[in-house]
């Protein structure tokens, strides 16, 4: 295959702001903190940054900070900028930054996702002065009337069908939650670090059956920033360049929470397939997987979609937790995931993938050379294959 | 079941121009789904153009209102004030075309009777201007009722 364009890009810097349950700091405040750290981490100055890319931009009901806010706050001079909700999931912001750098539109793009959901509270319908569905897209008119306003409701339906068709158990979902909690103990920024047993998991209250409280990620406040640069900059990266080997962006099924063609997987089926179409590497080459766990079952769906096991075998794959532990064959969500580390909306996985490839993670996987990062649930999905060295 | 058709929860019905018929259809007791006059495929959610043959000859047509539960969840958390848990949210595949998947609440039975592959049929909750499609377990036609 001719060289995929994304190989011209590297991640030169990565950093996070303070992360917490209720920081009562504004989104722009957190974003500036993470941005200045990441720019320094990349060996750059504010004047070097000539692009901004963010998810979801100023649109949508759950943005934490817009690109324009950051642009103006630090008086960037930009050659390229983007921020939007309709893209390849949260990592779509990275995908677009990579393309901008590869195309020569910008040299160093600051990519961020900021959340203030710990202080701000969850998205609600029916509140406020307007009432009704607020800014929800038209397709949600078929969901909201039935009392299901949360992704917990929509995704639990897929989890139940997976259980029905493949025999997946609550204990197998629990193995993902417990792995995350165990790993979070090594992350000083994690929200939940107290040990969790399987009994704890099975006994906690149900939210949307089959999901219990511990199948759902924990809202938090925090900002994650990565700097995407051209690979020409790699020799000057102080802490080691992380190379982009391939990115997965596809959505070949319907862009819908309730009308997707297969009720036992989601859009990650398509984004994962499109990623493997762009690389000589295979699932067997991956040293660590950082896979979205907005809900525990999503991680299982990502494991299957990326081919770490056969379709439907995700339950037995994670059962007992040994295979996905830091010393297992597929170290998974080593920072604690969103289930315990905090709902940084995809970018926590990206940050951890970068740290693992640099060899500076809190819970370091030995000789980590290839990391798979996948983010999103429902129709939101995108992934990245990152490597320590150039391909 | 906690959904009482006599005292319905807030539904926040908010149709688009193409879907208004869907939320009024139950006035005569029939569920209607948009159908293409060109290729005769069923279309849901309703749209302005047939996604298969691009015909604009589209109209709602009655369906039997029977189907099968493809999957469901038992919601146990209050998300909307006045919409009291627990209640069942389900995706029902219609008999006319199982790719037509209707989102709904299951009523008329105990929560632990709800299961994937359960046969269900439509009923309507009259709620303000709207007739909200709900589904209950199908009663077997034994001839003695």
Topology summary:
The complex is a heterodimer of chains A (391) and B (145).
Chain A: E1 9-16, H1 27-41, E2 51-54, H2 67-73, E3 80-83, H3 92-102, E4 108-116, H4 117-120, H5 151-166, H6 170-184, H7 198-203, E5 206-209, E6 211-212, E7 221-230, E8 242-248, H8 268-276, E9 288-291, H9 296-305, H10 314-318, H11 337-341, H12 347-358, E10 370-375, E11 382-387
Parallel strand pairs in A: 2-3, 2-4, 9-10
Antiparallel strand pairs in A: 1-7, 1-8, 4-7, 5-6, 8-11, 10-11
Helix pairs in contact in A: 6-9, 8-9
Chain B: H1 20-24, E1 31-36, E2 42-43, E3 58-63, E4 66-75, E5 87-94, E6 97-105, E7 119-127, E8 130-137
Antiparallel strand pairs in B: 1-2, 1-3, 4-5, 4-7, 5-6, 7-8
What does this structure look like?
The complex is a heterodimer of chains A (391) and B (145). Chain A has a single domain, classed as 3-Layer(aba) Sandwich (Peroxisomal Thiolase, Chain A, domain 1). The two termini of chain A are 13 Å apart. Mean pLDDT of chain A is 94; it is low at 122-133. The longest helix of chain A is centred in the middle third of the chain and has 16 residues, at 151-166. Chain A has 391 residues and is an alpha/beta fold. In chain A, a hairpin with a 6-residue loop joins strand 10 (370-375) and strand 11. Chain A has helices at residues 27-41, 67-73, 92-102, 117-120, 151-166, 170-184, 198-203, 268-276, 296-305, 314-318, 337-341, 347-358, and strands spanning 9-16, 51-54, 80-83, 108-116, 206-209, 211-212, 221-230, 242-248, 288-291, 370-375, 382-387. In chain A, helix 6 (170-184) crosses helix 9 and helix 8 runs parallel beside helix 9 (296-305). Chain B has 145 residues and is mostly beta strands. Chain B has one domain (20-137): OB fold (Dihydrolipoamide Acetyltransferase, E2P), CATH 2.40.50.840. In chain B, a hairpin with a 2-residue loop joins strand 7 (119-127) and strand 8. The longest helix of chain B is centred in the first third of the chain and has 5 residues, at 20-24. Chain B starts with 19 loop residues before the first helix and ends in an 8-residue tail after the last strand. The model of chain B has no long low-confidence stretch (mean pLDDT 93). Classes of the chains: A alpha/beta (391), B mainly beta (145). The interface between A and B is large, with 37 and 34 residues.
């Amino acid at each position: 295959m001719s060289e995929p364009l994304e190989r011209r890009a590297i991640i030169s810097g990565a950093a996070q702001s303070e992360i917490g349950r209720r920081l009562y700091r504004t989104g722009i405040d957190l974003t500036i903190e993470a941005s200045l750290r990441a720019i320094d981490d990349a060996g750059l100055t504010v004047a070097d940054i000539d692009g901004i890319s963010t998810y979801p931009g100023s649109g949508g009901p759950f943005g934490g900070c817009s690109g324009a806010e950051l642009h103006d706050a630090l008086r960037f001079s930009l050659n390229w900028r983007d921020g939007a909700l309709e893209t390849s999931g949260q990592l779509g912001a990275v995908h677009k930054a990579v393309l901008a750098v590869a195309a020569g539109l910008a040299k160093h793009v600051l990519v961020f996702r900021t959340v203030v959901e710990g202080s701000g509270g969850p998205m609600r319908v029916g509140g406020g002065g307007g009432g009704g569905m607020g800014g929800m897209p038209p397709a949600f008119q078929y969901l909201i009337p039935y009392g299901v306003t949360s992704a917990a409701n929509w995704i639990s339906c897929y989890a139940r069908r997976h259980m029905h068709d493949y025999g997946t158990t609550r204990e197998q979902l629990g193995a993902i939650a417990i792995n995350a909690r165990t790993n979070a103990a090594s992350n000083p920024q994690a929200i939940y670090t107290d040990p969790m047993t399987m009994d704890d998991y099975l006994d906690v209250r149900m939210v949307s059956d089959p999901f219990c409280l511990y199948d759902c990620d924990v809202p938090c406040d925090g900002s994650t920033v990565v700097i995407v640069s051209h690979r020409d900059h790699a020799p000057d990266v102080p802490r080691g360049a992380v190379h982009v080997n391939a990115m997965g962006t596809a959505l070949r099924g319907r862009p819908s929470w309730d009308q997707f063609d297969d009720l036992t997987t989601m859009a990650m089926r398509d984004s994962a397939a499109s990623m493997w179409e762009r690389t000589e590497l295979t699932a067997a080459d991956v040293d660590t997987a950082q896979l979205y766990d907005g809900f525990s079952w999503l991680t299982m769906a990502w494991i299957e979609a990326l081919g770490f096991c056969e379709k439907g075998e995700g339950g037995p794959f994670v059962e007992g937790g040994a295979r996905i532990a830091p010393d297992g064959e597929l170290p998974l969500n080593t920072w604690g995931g969103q289930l315990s580390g905090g709902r940084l909306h995809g970018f926590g996985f990206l940050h951890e993938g970068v740290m693992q490839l640099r060899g500076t993670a809190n819970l370091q996987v030995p000789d980590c050379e290839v990391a798979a990062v996948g983010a999103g649930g429902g129709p939101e999905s995108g992934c990245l294959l990152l490597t320590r060295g150039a391909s | 079941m906690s959904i009482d058709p006599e005292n319905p929860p807030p539904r926040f019905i908010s149709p688009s121009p193409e879907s208004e018929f869907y939320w009024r259809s139950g006035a005569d007791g029939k569920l209607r789904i948009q159908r293409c006059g060109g290729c005769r495929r069923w279309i849901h959610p309703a749209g302005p153009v047939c996604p298969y043959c691009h015909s604009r000859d589209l109209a709602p047509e009655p369906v039997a209102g029977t189907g099968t539960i493809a999957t469901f969840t038992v919601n146990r958390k209050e998300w909307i004030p006045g919409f009291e848990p627990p209640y069942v949210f389900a995706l029902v595949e219609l008999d006319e075309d199982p790719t037509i998947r209707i989102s709904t609440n299951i009523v008329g039975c105990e929560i632990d009777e709800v299961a994937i592959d359960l046969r269900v049929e439509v009923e309507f909750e009259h709620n303000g201007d709207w007739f909200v499609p709900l589904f209950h377990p199908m009663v077997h036609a034994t001839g003695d009722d």
